[in-house]
RNA sequence: GGAGAGUUGGCUGAGUGGUCGAAAGCGCUCCCCUGCUAAGGGAGUAUACGUUAAUAGCGUAUCGAGGGUUCGAAUCCCUCACUCUCCGCCA
């Protein structure tokens, strides 16, 4: 959520920033609502003040044994007017809150304008696309060996966009999770957490998935309002919801392995082949809670932490900064890391690292005591994938494949495979 | 799932219709005193929102959440959430 004061005082600047996201702000309607709000709230509050004063006077009169009836008569007349004023005030405030909750974060000055992912700007490229002396297969064909990666079984058990892994592929999947968690905790300074994969709606409002993106979520059909998490960003970031942190607790760096569940409504026909886009996938997430002045450096650091996984695995990738049309709702600036997939002959997203500034913190009321100002201030929150496990598995299979369809195990993963050095050796 | 007890400020905890945004203690901050030191004395110490140049005043709201009764609710009523104890079930 944006600072309501920003809407009041710098409406034009907010509108300019929204334009970079291709979001049109109805400034005329907003300023009209705002002036109604001001008037309605003042009126309701002054009537409340009047009632409170009268009530106090009644109490005092009764305590002294005086007749309180004249004041009672007077305050009775206030009743309906007060009720109406309160209703009007809360009505207009609800309208403003609804608009505000639907507005995305302000983008950073670095964010380029653009309409979709084709306008994202490449920042750097690490490694060269893997070259092969033969025609490389994609992960679906590679994984078909021995039913190691089985989409028919997934469809039988659940439906489309589900998969079953077994044998070497299942083990590679597990090894990648271990490797990522070990790297983030031992090398990059994150604390590992295990959190619920089901959350309530408060948590989803906190990180911004609700109210706007309900259709992307799996909602449980039970009495309580429960949702499957679309990413562990939701539970992990919400660890600091409604919390007042001490300055010396910051920065907090969490990493978390979880399953992620996405309905993928609106993605019909996209990435229907293979493991790229599934209803359920696993991810190792990074979340940082930092002081506001540190968040931009933290974004650079976190992006490099995600990159460190691909560097260790020695898989080529590039980093892009997302344009206004592609950046997520809560983010002020986002770097996507795109990994080279020989099977698609393209770079594909494997991580997304975002600085959400105070956008989520305001929704969550996540604050810290700033010793410099003596005030309680909103923290900044960041999140990034470190990395998406399924897509990393695709990248390993496709980049490390050999002509006979087997796959060499990257050196960084040897510790998780005993003496084994090759996957999918036997047809 | 059954029965019972709870949810108050950074913490402990009092408060069952009216000067209660809330006693007391602890903690913390500042000041004072003191060569006997896990000492003493004093003052201060919730948050959000509105108004405002203001972190000055003033106002509003908040005692788990939401609703109700009342001129007035931490206190009474209803619904919900969560915590604890015992029983049952269970990975």
Defining traits:
single chain; 427 residues; alpha+beta; eight-stranded mixed β-sheet; 12 helices; 17 strands; 39% helix; elongated; RNA-binding
Topology, please?
Blueprint: H1 4-9, H2 11-20, H3 27-63, H4 69-101, E1 121-126, H5 139-143, E2 149-150, H6 151-157, E3 164-165, H7 168-187, E4 191-192, E5 198-200, H8 201-207, E6 226-228, H9 233-237, E7 243-246, E8 252-261, E9 280-290, H10 295-313, E10 317-321, E11 333-341, E12 346-355, H11 359-364, E13 366-370, E14 375-378, E15 380-388, H12 389-399, E16 407-408, E17 422-423
Parallel strand pairs: 4-8, 7-13
Antiparallel strand pairs: 1-10, 2-3, 5-6, 8-9, 9-15, 10-11, 11-12, 12-15, 13-14, 16-17
The chain binds one RNA strand of 91 nucleotides through helix 3 and helix 4.
Q: How would you describe the overall organization of this protein?
A:
- The strands form 5 sheets. This protein has an 8-stranded mixed β-sheet. Strands 7-13-14 form a 3-stranded mixed β-sheet.
- With 427 residues, the chain is an alpha+beta fold.
- 36% of the residues are buried.
- It is 39% helix and 21% strand.
- It is elongated.
- It has helices spanning 4-9, 11-20, 27-63, 69-101, 139-143, 151-157, 168-187, 201-207, 233-237, 295-313, 359-364, 389-399; strands at 121-126, 149-150, 164-165, 191-192, 198-200, 226-228, 243-246, 252-261, 280-290, 317-321, 333-341, 346-355, 366-370, 375-378, 380-388, 407-408, 422-423.
- The structure holds one RNA strand of 91 nucleotides.
């Amino acid at each position: 959520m944006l600072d309501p004061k920003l809407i009041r005082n710098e409406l034009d600047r907010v509108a300019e920033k929204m334009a970079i996201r291709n979001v049109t702000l109805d400034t005329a309607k907003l300023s009209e609502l705002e002036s109604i709000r001001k008037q309605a709230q003042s009126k309701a509050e002054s009537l409340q003040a009047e009632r409170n004063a009268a009530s106090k006077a009644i109490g005092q009169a009764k305590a002294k044994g005086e007749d309180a009836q004249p004041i009672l008569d007077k305050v009775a007349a206030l009743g309906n007017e007060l009720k109406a004023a309160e209703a009007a005030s809360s009505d207009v405030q609800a309208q403003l809150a609804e608009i505000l909750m639907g507005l995305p974060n302000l983008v950073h000055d670095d964010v380029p304008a653009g309409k979709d992912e084709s306008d994202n700007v490449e920042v750097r490229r690490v490694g060269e696309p893997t070259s092969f002396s033969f025609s490389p297969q994609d992960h679906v064909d590679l994984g078909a060996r021995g039913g190691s990666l089985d989409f028919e079984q997934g469809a039988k058990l659940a439906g489309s966009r589900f998969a079953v892994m077994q044998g070497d592929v299942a083990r590679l999947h597990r090894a990648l999770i271990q490797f990522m968690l070990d790297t983030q905790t031992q090398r990059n300074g994150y604390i590992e957490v295990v959190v619920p994969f089901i959350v309530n709606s408060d948590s989803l409002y906190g990180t911004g998935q609700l109210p706007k993106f309900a259709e992307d979520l799996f909602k449980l059909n039970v009495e309580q309002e429960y949702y499957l998490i679309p990413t562990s960003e939701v539970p992990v970031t919400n660890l600091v919801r409604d919390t007042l942190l001490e300055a010396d607790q910051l920065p907090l760096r969490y990493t978390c392995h979880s399953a992620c569940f996405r309905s993928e409504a609106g993605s019909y026909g996209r990435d229907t082949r293979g493991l790229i886009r599934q209803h359920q996938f696993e991810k190792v997430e990074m979340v940082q809670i930092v002081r506001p002045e540190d968040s931009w450096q933290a974004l650079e650091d976190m992006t490099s932490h995600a990159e460190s996984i691909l560097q260790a695995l020695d898989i080529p990738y590039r980093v892009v900064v997302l344009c206004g049309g592609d950046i997520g709702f809560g983010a002020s600036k986002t770097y996507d890391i795109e990994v080279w997939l020989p099977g698609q002959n393209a770079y594909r997203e494997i991580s997304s690292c975002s600085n959400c500034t105070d956008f989520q913190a305001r929704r969550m009321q996540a604050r810290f005591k700033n010793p410099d100002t003596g005030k309680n201030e909103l923290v900044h929150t960041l999140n990034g994938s470190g990395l998406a496990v399924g897509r990393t598995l695709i990248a390993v299979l496709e980049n490390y494949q050999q002509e006979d369809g087997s796959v060499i195990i990257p050196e960084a993963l040897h510790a998780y495979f005993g003496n084994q050095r090759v996957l999918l050796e036997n047809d």
